[in-house]
């Protein structure tokens, strides 16, 4: 096997673009049936307080199912929780000195990676 040195690259997206992508992804999760998926999991007997359901998305969906939160409030809470999660990920990866950070977005670099 050849001795290969990996190159670690991180894409440093501007905050507005990242937030717009997060919001679009969260909205897509709701449209794709997050509540129905969560209800099926609960119907299988999984405890709503199980660790696997204490994740971004399920927490908000369970709150809607249980009448604790309106759908509009849950949608906004999901966006906020996802943005916070992305910030924690970014902070964690920033500590890795092997990563070379490049300003831009995924769409800027995807053609380069695929070639």
Keywords:
single chain; 115 residues; mainly alpha; Helix Hairpins; two-stranded parallel sheet; 5 helices; 2 strands; elongated
Q: Could you explain how this protein is built, in words?
A:
The relative contact order is 0.18. By secondary structure, the protein is mostly helical. The chain has one domain (8-114): Crystal structure of tRNA isopentenylpyrophosphate transferase (bh2366) domain (Helix Hairpins), CATH 1.10.287.890. The protein starts with 7 loop residues before the first strand and ends with a helix. It is built from 5 helices and 2 strands, in the order βααααβα. It has a two-stranded parallel ribbon. Helices cover 59% and strands 9% of the residues.
CATH architecture heading: Orthogonal Bundle
The domain count comes to 1
CATH homologous superfamily placement: Crystal structure of tRNA isopentenylpyrophosphate transferase (bh2366) domain
Q: What overall geometry do the principal axes of the alpha carbons give?
A: elongated
* Proportion of strand residues: 5-15%
Major β-sheet, in short? Answer: 2 strands, parallel
Query: What percent of residues adopt helix (DSSP H or I)?
Result: 55-70%
What is the gist of this entry?
The protein has helices spanning 15-31, 34-43, 58-65, 71-94, 106-114; strands spanning 8-12, 99-103. With 115 residues, the chain is mainly α.
